[in-house]
Amino acid sequence: MPSPTEETWKQSEKGYRETWNFPNCVGSIDGKHVSIKCPKNSGSEYFCYKKFFSVVLLAIVDPCYKFTVIDVGSYGRHSDSGIFENSIFYRQYIHGKSLLPDKPLPGTEEPVPHVLIGDEGFALKTYLMRPFPRALATQDERKTNFNKRLCRTRRVVENTFGILAQKWRIFLRPIDCDVDTAIDIIKAACCLHNYLRTKQGTAILTPESEDENVPMRALITHRPTNRRSTTAAFETREQFVSYFNQ
C-alpha cells in the first residue's frame, strides 16, 4: 500500500466535498477488532472489552471505499485514540504538521484545517472531528445537523469494513494462526480490497445496497472515549457547525 502524498489527500478532499458534501475532509477513520485465536503467553493484552481476543485494524478510507492508510496489530485492549496517536502515520503526517494547508470552507473567508472524521472512539482534535454527544445534540438543532452530516459521511469507512468482511470471509470467525501471520493476512486482505476496488470501478454504494449486519458481526467497533479536547478543537468544530447550518 503506497504512502499517501499531498495529491492523494487533495483527491480525497475533492471526493468528500463533491460526493458527500463535507468540504475540508481528507478521510474517514475508524478502528475495528479482528478476532484471533488466543495467543500463547499473552495474558490479557489481546483481550478486548467484548470478551474475545483480537488485534486492531485502524484505517483511514477515501471517498471511494479504498484504504488510504492502515495500522494493524495493536493489542485489543487499547483504544482507538491511543492506537492512532502511537501509529507511524500520526508521527509522520499529524504530529506538529498538517495533512494539507488550511483553506476556507466554500462561501467563507476564514481558513479552516483539513480534518479526518471519526466516531466517539476518538478524541476531538483540530485535525479530527467527532460528533456531539447525543444528549447535547437533541437539545440543539445546529448540532443535530452537524451530527447528521458527519455520520452520513463517516458511513464510508463503515461501508468499507463491510465490503472487506463480505469479500474475505476469514473475518467472520477467529483467525486461527499466530499473531504475526494474522497481521499479514489482514494487511493482504486490505491491499487486495484496494486492488479489486480499482479494477472493478469505484461506484458509490448506498447503505441500502450492503448487508449492514456483516461489519457488526465480523469486525467490532471500539468503545467511546471521553478524553478532554482543546479550545482550538472546539472552535474548529464550531466552524463546521456554522457552515452546515448556513
Automatic annotation (TrEMBL):
Domain of life the protein comes from: Eukaryota
Presence of keyword Cell division: no
Keywords: Hydrolase, Metal-binding, Nuclease, Nucleus
GO molecular function: hydrolase activity; metal ion binding; nuclease activity
Assigned GO CC terms: nucleus
Named cofactor requirement(s): a divalent metal cation
Domain DDE Tnp4 as annotated: residue spans: 29-194
Principal place of residence: nucleus
Pfam families (alphabetical): DDE_Tnp_4 (PF13359)
Cell compartment(s), UniProt: Nucleus
Family: Belongs to the HARBI1 family.
Name the record gives this protein: DDE Tnp4 domain-containing protein
